[in-house]
Amino acid sequence: MRPVEAERDIFLRKKDRHAPSEHGKFLEFSKQQKESDVAIHCNQPPSAAETVPATLLHPVFGQFLEDCETHEITKQDNILTRELSAAMSTFYSDEALRAQAVRDVFAKGGIRFTPTQIEDTKYITDGDISLDGHRFVIAEFKNEVGCTGAEPYAQASLYYLEATRRYAAKMGHSVLPCFIVLVFGPYLAFAGASWNLRPVVQVLSTTLPMHYHLSDTKMRTTVARHLGSLKKAIGTLEEHYRELSHQARPDSMPYSQLFPYPTSFTCRQHGTRQNFKYSRQPFSEKLVFFGSLVSTDDICIKFVRRYSQQVHLRCASMGCAPALLGFECIPGGWFMVVMHALPSDYVCLDSFQASGGCLGRIRDQLIQLHRDGFVHGDIRSTNIMVLKDETKFMILDFDWAGKIGETRYPMNVNTEIYRPEGAIDGALIQAGHDIAMLDFIAGWSQNVPEPMDVEDVH
User: Fold this and answer.
1) pLDDT for residue 256 is more than 80
2) How many CB atoms sit inside 10 A of residue 279's CB?
3) Residue 249 pLDDT grade (very low, low, confident, very high; cuts 50, 70, 90)
4) How confident is the model over 72-93, as a mean pLDDT?
5) Please, which residues bridge with residue 328 across strands?
6) Nearest to residue 332, comparing CAs of 65, 57, 50, 58?
7) Which element (helix H / strand E) includes 154?
8) Predicted local confidence at residue 351, as pLDDT
9) What is the mean pLDDT of residues 47-72?
10) Are the C-beta atoms of residues 163 and 180 closer than 8 Å to each other?
11) In Å, what is the CA distance from 129 to each residue of 162, 163, 215, 397?
């Protein structure tokens, strides 16, 4: 296992220096992104994706997303929105004129982008904001959408790479967070950039059309909230880098990756704040981690966009789910679920031939859950753990669970595995679907009564 700094150094040695203005062009960028060992994880193509997104590597990005929905707009936000709309809706003969005009408007609004030359290179940004050499906002300008040249998202991602190249392999304890502001013609967009073992870039907004009609108060409000949120985020990152410059570097970084930034939760039982340490990520493609409390108790930490705390607690009270230690909302639409880790003598049902009696007890507990008014929604062999002596079992993954008659399937339900009829995107999750999936696992599909309807459990 190599530490973070060593992994970053390996990536940087493989990723040669190239001018972002040239290698941000379609042919060059797409070629590099198809090579897994040098691709920037910016979700383009889909294979170039990071399991832990930027919104979980630093809180500023998730907070920006929430602020874009809730920020209380000020007079200054509205003035900047109006003047930026006028400047960006104007035609310019070249990119430099557009960039200067837009930078001037941002500066009047308190956001000062300055073109600077990246150290040890000839690369000059279109504008950035920095502190002690750390660029924490990078702006990229294009004159119009149809103009030739580099793609702005790709070019800005490469500027971030080059701007952080001299720090990344020496500062393995930091994700080096940075906002990216994209201005292309009359359109405005935002992204977040950070480091794990390589740069991780995540789009943080839809593309905002700045040539909206003055009567479009919804769009004007949306833009004003984004700009106000950007100002707040800039202040947060400036403070972050000010503190970073005074922080002592850790003596060692024993991990081979950076984990999500939350390292504490409020204990459900006692209401106290509990600190924890991550130890590993058992599945590279899932946001599931193992760790330990100060008391050395092993825990499992999971980050999800949707989860039923209520159903988890009900199953735990029935003795068929791990104890739920903490459940918290994380900025950016995330939930952090903390539970006891199961002992190693539990095995996954997909790798264990359980007896009919054991499967029957699981079925009975599901029926009881349904009588209580709840569904699980994703009863698969990978979501059921059994002790080898079959004295106990645990149901996991309550991401889709909820109340009968209210809870619906999410987007992109995996239909490459068995699903009962009606288990499709957006449909109500039926109690019978849980039973049908368990019966399929058990091989009982041809020998059991028809799955129950919702009405059968009331």
Assistant:
1) no
2) 16
3) low
4) 98
5) 336
6) 65
7) helix 152-168
8) 87
9) 98
10) no
11) 15, 12, 33, 42
Give the span between the Cα atoms of 426 and 340, in whole angstroms: 31
> pLDDT for 2-30, tens place per residue?
799 999 999 999 999 999 999 999 999 99
Tabulate helix, strand, coil % of the chain (nearest 5). Answer: 35, 20, 45
The pLDDT-based confidence of 294 (bands split at 50, 70, 90) is: confident
Q: Around Cβ 87, how many Cβ atoms within 10 Å?
A: 20
Task: Report the residue count for the chain.
Answer: 458
Alpha carbon distances (Å) from 149 to 87, 160, 335, 428: 22, 18, 40, 48
- CA-wise closest residue to 380 among 362, 367, 392, 368: 362
Does residue 299 contact residue 293 with C-beta atoms inside 8 Å?
Answer: yes
pLDDT digits (tens, 9 = 90+) for 408-451: 999 999 999 999 999 999 999 999 999 999 999 998 644 444 44
Residue 326's φ and ψ, nearest 5 degrees, are -155, 155
**Torsion angles phi and psi, residue 206, rounded to 5:** -70, 165
pLDDT given at position 296: 72
Residue 210 DSSP code: S
Using N-to-C axis directions, what is the helix angle for 356-371 and 431-442, rounded to 10°? 180
Before 209, cis peptide (omega within 30)?
no
% the chain with pLDDT above 90: 90
Distance CA 117, CA 176 (A): 19
Three-state DSSP class for residue 330: strand
Q: What are phi and psi of 292, to 5 degrees?
A: -150, 150
Q: What is the spatial distance between Cα 131 and Cα 134, in angstroms, rounded to a whole number?
A: 5
Type and span of the H or E element at 336: strand 334-340
Apex CA 417: angle with CA 450 and CA 385, to 5°?
80
Q: How many Å apart are CA 458 and CA 454, to the nearest integer?
A: 7
The burial of 54, by beta-carbon neighbours within 10 Å (0-12 exposed, 13-18 middle, 19 or more buried), is given as buried
Q: What value does the mean pLDDT take over residues 81-94?
A: 98
CA dist 326 and 301 (Å) reads: 9
Tell me the whole-structure pTM to 2 decimals: 0.93
pLDDT beyond 70 at 456: no
Count of C-beta atoms within a 10 Å radius of residue 447? 8
Whole-angstrom Cα distance, residue 283 to residue 29?
A: 29
User: CB of 408 within 8 A of CB of 428?
Assistant: yes
CA 103/CA 106 separation, integer angstroms? 5
